[in-house]
């Protein structure tokens, strides 16, 4: 219970800090401070930084006709400006005010698209430019907008008359001053890092004294050192965050070079670590493993970023700072979560999936985690984050970590993960012809007095994944039969996989033009139950799961095996 008490203390300390931080932010956005954001208007944009995000001219056409497909939702404005209508979806609102959709106008390359971009920017300046309030002026959204306006200034200013040119630069300068004041008040996480990236872009792209660039560079370096781990992961442990930050850092590196300025060593080092980290999380089909907030993969986005990766050879197998392990041989990939939860202040998207794993064979996924429906209803998120939505073991139908459901906490922090595993020791067990690891977590010790230990071993040229799940009491005392020792080990099966039972009673996992795998367990008869896969490109899909259910006081250890019996149409060879 001491662990739970410690987590609660940290949570309420964080609540107090965030309350005070938000109070200061409101003051800085109020009329007493607003005069500080006025000042000299830059004369011109020196350089438009590149944008690596994918662009689609068809979306520019949709926007011209008043249809805005943003954040997974289509909104038709009926001829009105999108900034005039009330839309309840917060993701759509943030995407609208973030202006990343300007890249589609640039891709269209027409005078019509440029005129439409200019008209929409003019609408925003008229309706929101001087009223520092609401979603439009959330610091994270402001950072996205500053970057987007700079990156696509060429299309916005194409054919612009002088009054609009000045209004654009005046508004941009005001947003930059506001962001500079707010950055230090932002909570830990990717939005604060993006704010520092935006300010570095601004110092490079607009006329500014050398001291402004030095300050922006120094602050960026400090934030990168805080948030990017030594193995290239992000402090939030969310794989998609690595991709999102790289999509900003790579153009920033190019902008330093284009302006003949020396980028900070922290920027170069972060990119050099993050590109291999992104490859670490990829399965062979290019999709990213579904851990800690990762949903569906948009493959072209990943490929665009990884074109900048000069790393030769296979991905790393060990990410100890991020808390993940990878096993890979014979066209088979296993990626596992072997780390404790991230710090509370960056755990809004974190999952209770300790010791969960995913298995892909060739370009097909077999064992997965449920992932998240990135643009779906918020009420499904707690289900996707629960331990039961992951391919790992649960104890007494309880998640290995808890989520805050306090309205006071959620209003300030969202839904942070609390009370999860504190210690997750892990060691590699690689040998000649095999790769593996042994890990355990203490997420159930405070409530049920039991540790969960998992060992995975991939061998026989990738044809055999042997697993062992063990529950034990600290000190190895006998497990009591007290009704609080019910274990469920789940293996969520990808929706594209067929699951049937052969004449020997074994479970066979098949897919068209893909490998065949067989699941067996020595101690417990596996059962098949319904499941749901949240991370489909088209939204949630029904799926199935293999379940091993037992009492730890009766069976403290189970040995299971996934064996590849056929490789895309022919027998697997040992």
UniProtKB/TrEMBL annotation:
Residues 313-561 form the Heparinase II/III-like C-terminal domain. InterPro entries: Chondroitin_lyas, Hepar_II_III_C. It is found in: Periplasm. Gene3D superfamilies: 2.70.98.70, Chondroitin AC/alginate lyase (1.50.10.100). GO terms for molecular function: lyase activity. GO terms for cellular component: periplasmic space. This is Heparinase.
